[in-house]
Structure formats: structure tokens, C-alpha cells
Design a protein that fits this description.
Distance between the termini: 35 Å
Number of helices: 13
Number of strands: 2
Oligomer: single chain
Structural class: mainly alpha
Order of helices and strands: HHHHHHHHHHEHEHH
Helix content: 25-40%
């Protein structure tokens, strides 16, 4: 059951669930088992949950995740909360996966992360008898295919919805449950802090990719590495801020260990870049009779109390129930 503000037309329009893969209880249950099953890696040591941990907002507290042979991934693990509402429907930091169904098979086949071919994946899953019933419940018979595995995993990920944060509880009463500091942070988020321009709606995620001025030149080209277009260099998928207090470290390369450092970056440390998002740039078209305005990265110049308030507001977006909900938890008991 979702609160009314997550059933509003603008939110429903963000839903990327395809018509041929609606979320079902049986499909998401199968997906949950697959998500936590270490058999989905070449040496039975890594599951999807190894890099997307429930207690950390389905992300990884390490800067870079560790794959099945001990190698490190090239980017920080992105949180999965409310992935269903990424309207563009593209996934990975560089959006190279056209759908969530495509994305969930990517790490399984990655040479660093899990190291299986799709043929090996199907063979290993087919060999486990408990999957026969799970596949029958979800799809009508026990046949295992990579497409069915993809669909079940995607259903599970789309089922991970955050709807019981302090923000959600306060939304119907104009945030009467907020402290003065949290309400100041909310005002800054929606106003002078300009955060809402990239993290809009009650899901705090836009329908776009952005260059946020982390560096110039970019070590990682982001979307530009996929498209080959100079105007896409340094652009990355913008993640939701839901459960953001749980998903440290931050940015595609995990460079910021704390939310305080993230706020300070946007406050005073954005680097100029030709592709810097307009939302993060000062200046604009010249006014009649006036010289062109200088253009460069925004400097918000928030004082310490304002920065603290912004961090306090970001903490209200955390849903503690989601981080401990049994239906999203590990069904296996691997021990150590």
C-alpha cells in the first residue's frame, strides 16, 4: 500500500514497469531468492546483494565493490530504492542498459563482478530443485531461461519502494512532524539551495542525466564513454535521494564519505566544465543595454547552520522500515 502522494499522476508517470513484466508476488519472491543467491557467481561467492545491501539502502558502503575474484568495480554501487520510478528507464551510471530487465543481467555477466555466461547461469539455476516450484509459481512452469531470471530480478528490484520515511509521514500534514531545522533544510532544498532542480518530485529523481562539475577533465567520461559525443562527457545518471543517508559513499566514484561533504561540494566546490548542467551554472543571456553576465559554477555560500539544516532534511528521506523489512531480506543462511 502506497501513500496518496505516491499515487499522484506525476509519480505514476515516472513508473518504468513494462506492460509485459508487471510486478507479481510470485515473481518478486523468485527475484528475491535470485538476488541473494551466491550461485549466480562463477565461484558461488557473490550475489547481487553483495554489492546492494539492504541495510545500506541496497548500495555498498565500500567505495568500490569487490567481485567474485577479489577485483574492484570501476564505480560505486548505486542504491536501488525506488528504481521503479526512474522514468527514463535506463540504468547504470552511464545509462548503458536500456531497461531494468537488461541491467540485472549485466553484473552477472561482468568479468569482475560475478563472471557467468547466461548459459552457465541457466544451468546453475536449473540444477537447484527449490527453483522448480518458484519458477512454476511465477511463470506457470519450471522452465528456467535467462529472460525469466531477468524478469524476476527486475520485479524484485521494482518492488523495493520507500514510502515510510519521516518525509512521507509528514507530507499529508505539510511536514508538521519536522523540526525547525528540518523545515529550514526543506526550504533550502526547494529554494536557494536549488537541489530540487535536479532531484524533483516526491521521488527526488529527474528525467535526465547531468554533468555536476566534479572535475575537469573527467577521469570517467560517463555517458560520453557510451555515446562517444563530446557533449555527453562527464554526464551521469542522477540517483534518487530516498534513503540517501544509508547509501554512503557518494557520487559515481564514491569520493565523498559523508552527506556533509556532498553539501559542501554543491555549496562551494563545483568545477567549471563545458558540459556543466545549466542548473549549476550562473549567468545567462545578456540583458538589454547590459554587458554579458559572467558564467561559471554556482556558489551558494550557505552558512554552517544552513548546511547543517540541509543535511538534516536529507536524513528525513530515510525509511528505516525498508532497511529492515523481512520481505526484502536474505532468505538464505550462509553464515560466514
Amino acid at each position: 500500500a502506497l501513500p496518496l502522494h505516491l499515487l499522484a499522476p506525476p509519480i505514476l508517470a515516472q513508473d518504468n514497469t513494462p506492460a509485459n513484466n508487471p510486478i507479481t508476488d510470485a515473481g518478486a519472491t523468485l527475484g528475491r531468492v535470485l538476488f541473494y543467491d551466491k550461485r549466480l557467481s562463477a565461484n558461488n561467492s557473490i550475489s547481487c546483494s553483495s554489492c546492494h545491501q539492504q541495510q545500506h539502502g541496497f548500495s555498498d558502503p565500500r567505495q568500490f565493490s569487490i567481485g567474485f575474484q577479489g577485483g574492484a568495480t570501476g564505480r560505486n554501487s548505486m542504491g536501488l530504492t525506488n528504481a521503479r520510478y526512474h522514468q527514463r528507464g535506463h540504468f547504470f551510471w552511464d545509462e548503458r542498459a536500456a531497461t531494468l530487465e537488461d541491467q540485472v543481467l549485466g553484473p552477472i555477466q561482468n568479468d569482475v563482478e560475478m563472471g557467468l555466461t547466461l548459459t552457465e547461469l541457466v544451468s546453475k539455476v536449473s540444477a537447484e530443485e527449490f527453483y522448480h516450484e518458484l519458477f512454476t509459481d511465477a511463470f506457470g512452469d519450471q522452465t528456467v531461461t535467462s529472460r525469466r531470471i531477468s524478469r524476476a530480478l527486475a520485479q524484485f528490484v521494482r518492488s523495493i519502494i520507500s514510502a515510510e520515511s519521516k518525509y512521507d509521514l509528514g507530507r499529508p500534514t505539510n511536514f508538521s512532524n519536522f523540526t525547525a531545522q528540518e523545515n529550514l533544510g526543506r526550504a533550502l532544498f526547494n529554494g536557494r539551495g536549488r537541489c530540487v532542480t535536479c532531484h524533483g518530485s516526491d521521488n527526488f529523481v529527474p528525467n535526465n542525466v547531468f554533468n555536476n562539475g566534479l572535475e575537469n577533465p573527467y577521469t570517467d567520461p560517463g555517458v560520453g564513454g557510451i555515446t562517444g559525443r563530446p557533449q555527453d562527457i562527464g554526464k551521469f545518471k542522477v540517483t534518487t535521494l530516498r534513503n540517501v543517508a544509508l547509501t554512503a559513499p557518494y557520487m559515481h566514484d564514491g569520493r565523498f564519505p559523508t552527506l556533509e561533504e556532498v553539501v559542501e561540494f554543491y555549496n562551494s566546490q563545483i568545477v567549471d566544465h563545458p558540459n556543466l548542467a545549466p542548473q549549476l551554472r550562473t549567468g545567462g543571456p545578456p540583458r538589454p543595454g547590459q554587458p554579458p553576465q559572467p558564467s561559471g559554477p554556482i556558489r551558494l555560500n550557505l552558512n554552517q547552520a544552513e548546511r547543517n539544516a540541509l543535511v538534516a532534511f536529507l536524513h528525513t528521506l530515510t525509511d528505516p522500515n525498508l532497511a529492515a523489512d523481512p520481505k526484502y531480506s536474505d532468505p538464505f543462511d550462509y553464515g560466514d
